[in-house]
Specification:
By secondary structure, the chain is of the alpha+beta class. Helices cover 41% and strands 23% of the residues.
Length: 70
C-alpha cells in the first residue's frame, strides 16, 4: 500500500525510478552519532542517487548533515 502510494506520487512528480534503486539509495542514507568533549552530534551521510527526489516528493525535509543531539 505504501509502495503504491509512493509510486503514484513519484509518477505525478514526473520521476520514473526503479524500485531497486529506491531501496538501495535509502539504505545508503545513514546517520552516525559521535561524542566530542561531552557533546553528542549526529552526522548524516550524503544523499545518493534518487534519495533527494524521494524526500522532496513526499514532502519530508532531509535531516541536517551535522546536528547536535541530546
Amino acid at each position: 500500500m505504501l509502495r503504491k502510494e509512493l509510486e503514484i506520487r513519484l509518477n505525478n512528480a514526473g520521476h520514473d525510478l526503479e524500485w531497486a534503486d529506491i531501496k538501495q539509495d535509502l539504505s545508503a542514507l545513514k546517520t552516525v552519532t559521535i561524542e566530542e568533549e561531552g557533546k553528542h552530534f549526529a552526522i548524516r551521510a550524503e544523499c545518493q542517487g534518487c534519495c533527494g527526489k524521494l524526500f522532496q516528493t513526499v514532502g519530508v525535509a532531509l535531516p541536517q548533515v551535522i546536528r547536535k543531539v541530546a
